[in-house]
Specification:
- It is a single chain.
- With 206 residues, the protein is mainly β.
- The chain is 0% helix and 43% strand.
Length: 206
């Protein structure tokens, strides 16, 4: 909180990143959704070798999606797999099965050597990012990552089903860079007559 010292952890800095090292193991995540907001850069780092130095399997009953970002968040995730998040029942915004910046959150997000598998939502099966028209310096960077068998789906009522793997709606001063990243077996689908499913792998709009 505010980069102050807590227990054995020294005080942080608004400029230097705080680094959380994830163990080389499979983690069954049932502790509820994580939240990250401003306060300085944060790195969640799995151990080498990649691509899946650690694996986080989300329990949809207790956690739904894995992570939500708020305005000012500056997050990097490296060397990890995030799987089986499910935001399709989220009563506030059923998007981003694994990761969602909340609302029009103006954030900096880097995904490096991250695998998203078997996540589900109504939009952005794995990751949903939407920035505001007033955003300054927003950045989305995805490097050497994998989106595999994620699904955007909704059959009950009217909803824009978009981006089976990744949804990007970039406004204002937002830069996006996706390199050396694979999309495989993702789907955007609906059986509801009033819906339109687009972007099985990736939906990107301005």
């Amino acid at each position: 909180e505010g980069n102050s010292a807590v227990d054995d952890c020294p005080a942080g800095s608004a400029d230097e990143p705080d680094v959380v090292v994830l163990l080389d193991a499979s983690h069954a995540w049932s502790a509820g959704m994580l939240f990250v907001s401003g306060g300085g850069p944060l790195v969640l780092r799995g151990p080498d070798p990649a691509p899946a130095g650690c694996s986080v399997m989300v329990d949809p009953v207790f956690s739904g999606r894995f992570l939500k970002l708020f305005n000012g968040a500056d997050l990097t995730i490296e060397n990890c797999e995030i799987r089986e998040g499910d935001a399709s029942a989220d009563q506030n915004f059923a998007a981003g099965g694994a990761l969602l910046p909340d609302g029009l959150a103006d954030v900096k997000l880097t995904l490096r050597n991250v695998s998203f598998r078997l996540n589900r939502a109504r939009s952005g099966g794995a990751v949903h990012v939407e920035t505001s028209s007033t955003c300054v310096g927003c950045r989305i960077t995805i490097e050497r990552s994998l989106f595999e068998q994620n699904v955007a789906e909704h059959d009950v009522g009217v909803f824009l089903v978009r981006g089976g793997g990744l949804f990007l709606q970039l406004r204002g001063d937002t830069q996006a860079r996706i390199v050396d990243t694979t999309f495989e077996g993702n789907q955007a689908r609906t059986d509801f007559a009033g819906n339109q499913a687009t972007g099985g792998a990736l939906f990107a709009g301005l």
